[in-house]
Amino acid sequence: MQSLHRALDVVEAVAALTQAGGRGCSLAEIAEATALPAPTIHRLAGTLVERGYLRRLADRRYGLGFRLVPLGATAQLQVGAEADQVLADLVAELGESANLAVLAGHQAEYVAQAPARFAMRMFTEVGRRVDLHSTGVGKALLAQLDDDAVRAAVRRAGMTRRTEHTLTTPEDLLARLREVRAQGYALDEQEQELGVRCVAVALNPPGLGMALSVSGPLTRMGEDVVARAVPLLQAAADRLAAALDPTSSTQTDP
């Protein structure tokens, strides 16, 4: 299991470094990013190149391998056209950007977005990972876990202060999650980025590990917009959950 985790850490580090720098990365850069010994990186990289998950470039740097392309396409199909339509419908109703995120280890990863109609809008890059404690989708996902699991998640990830509004203690986060469970939705109140407000709901059952959100500038995301967004998001979450996992829909007894 440790070797598997390390191999995945290497692939994710190469992806992040390549995205940041626009080209491949060296073994030394991968070792620094993963905090793994250079011999371990060399061994894992060799295996990943052999299997096609990494490529060794002409300058001896490393990039992502083409074996990931069909895997990514298959994963995207699982999100499907229904997710795109659900997000587009939310934008049509509310005007603001709509997002779909999945639980990815101790972070949330955005896998789809429909941009707002406004010139000034929130843009979240598909594939971007964000903290759970400081985002709407993250808190919606954490609210599906029990308190012990939440504590374990933030212990692994830490609770980085992104803004002056970010929750930075497990006790404060757990108190907020109790509110999320009671009201059925989560808010990001400028906790990830100043001037941005987000409302999010998780898909059920919790095993799906997915959440929908609508986000926009604080000046447009007033209480009236949040009040309108919550039932629309909840209906959209039910619709998408049924499309992704038909067994998740609740059957009404005759």
From TrEMBL:
Gene3D superfamilies: 3.30.450.40, Winged helix-like DNA-binding domain superfamily/Winged helix DNA-binding domain. InterPro entries: GAF-like_dom_sf, HTH_MetabolicPath_Reg, Tscrpt_reg_IclR_C, Tscrpt_reg_IclR_N, WH-like_DNA-bd_sf, WH_DNA-bd_sf. The keyword Nucleus does not apply. Residues 67-246 form the IclR-ED domain. Keywords: DNA-binding, Transcription, Transcription regulation. Pfam families: HTH_IclR, IclR_C. It comes from Nocardioides nanhaiensis. PANTHER family: HELIX-TURN-HELIX TRANSCRIPTIONAL REGULATOR, ICLR FAMILY (PTHR30136), HTH-TYPE TRANSCRIPTIONAL REPRESSOR ALLR (PTHR30136:SF24). Residues 1-66 form the HTH iclR-type domain. It comes from the Bacteria. This is IclR family transcriptional regulator. SUPFAM superfamilies: GAF domain-like, Winged helix' DNA-binding domain. Transmembrane segments: none annotated.
